[in-house]
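Translate sequence into structure tokens.
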Amino acid sequence: MEHLSINYLAVAVSTFSAMILGALWYGPIFGKAWMAEIGKTEEQLKAEFNPAKTYGLTIIAHFFVSLIIAYLMVLTQANDLSGGLRIGLSLWVAVAGIHFVHGLFHSQSFKLIFMNIGYDLSCMIAYSVILSYWR
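Result follows.
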């Protein structure tokens, strides 16, 4: 079996880049609009929030998405930024479609759906750029 050359440090860095993007996206950039769209106040969110569970599971999820992109980049020999972006953006199209359908069935507003899909896009771009440069 062939050894796959995945840079796990790059996977970890891209994982935490998504966390930073999330803090910005759902904080100063779209925080107020996001809370309005989900119908919750900051106090309600704080009361319901379990940081260890939420951040722990979020880090694990981002790690696996980043790892899958790194794996696909190795398999497809996407050794440059263009190849990395092709992988990341292709996956984003699939994720965006699924996210859109879930949003529709959960009666979410288009504004909320596109806010979330936009965050996914920013993560996929960050993953792709970091994993492309740190091969």
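Note: The first helix runs from residue 8 to 29.
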